[in-house]
Amino acid sequence: MISGDFSTKASSARNAVTIYFKSYWNKLDVVAIILFFVGIVFRYISISECFCAGQIVISFDLSIWFIRTLDMFTAVKLLGPKLVMIGEMVHDLKFFMLMFFVFILAFGVQEFTWYLPCKIINFAYWHIFGEIKGLEIFEENFKANGYTAFILLLGYMTIVSILLFNLLIAMFSNTFDRLQSNADRIWKFQRYSLVCEYLSRPSFPSPFIFLSHFGRLTLYTLTKCYKKSQALMCNYLEHLIDDSKTNNGKRIKLPERHRLDSERSFEEMKHNINKSRQTYQRESLFDDDRIH
């Protein structure tokens, strides 16, 4: 029985961790916190290179925290669905970049070697945006390799600028149209998720969070004292009524019924809270499956 209890607790802990990391914002929080501590450690190492690395890490961390503030826009009806659209477009962009990177390497390596990876990417990447600074190299080279490089440049610009980028625009348009039709439902679900997330959190910010904990402790103590006083009152009334019986010889059950009603109301409130949490978890999992 003890091993079963421990396995149940371990399983519930794993489920809680899994549910926590299903949210994109929670993943972003973990990354931002880790980068913050890494940057602080580098800042306090008495080496100039480590100090510079700490500044770089903290600058990235600050950018992540600014992005994290977008979470507050999920409750806005006009901006909330747009965040979902941006997330879906980034998801489309990941698969596009895999194909795009293959074409960049395939074209860039024909001019430079693998010993110059930076020039391979720069030479091929900026050609997409019209920065064709190396075109005069092909025009002045009348050898066979010059004509070959020029033909490869034409094929690369045709495939990437015309085919792949139009494919990316079509993917973005499809994602936008698909989510725009459900914008109202997406906003309502995001608002509900945001309310459920912050419902059990303290009301005060971090420096004054002890006030919220003190209020919760006071409420918990008063609840325990109230339940204890109710139990004592029921026992006292039972003791008083113990000697007084009806003509049929039956005891009066009013105090017991009063005690059961108070316990039943508390259990119903606890059951409703657990039920709402389970419903929120199921809907979040269903929404993730529906979107992805």
- Shape descriptor reads elongated
Oligomerization status of the protein chains: single chain
- SSE order, as H and E? HHHHHHHHHH
Largest sheet: none
Number of DSSP-assigned strands: 0
Over the alpha carbons, how many angstroms does the gyration radius reach? 32 Å
> What is the end-to-end distance?
40 Å
Overall structural domain count = 3
For the residues shown, what is the average pLDDT?
70
User: Beta-strand percentage?
Assistant: under 5%
- The number of distinct helices, counting runs of at least 4 residues, comes to 10
Could you say which structural class the secondary elements and strand pairing correspond to?
Answer: mainly alpha
Percent helix: over 70%
Low-confidence segments, given as residue ranges, are 1-10, 243-256, 288-292
GO molecular function: monoatomic cation channel activity
Membrane topology: Multi-pass membrane protein
Transmembrane segments: 28-47, 95-116, 147-172
Domain Ion transport: 20-183
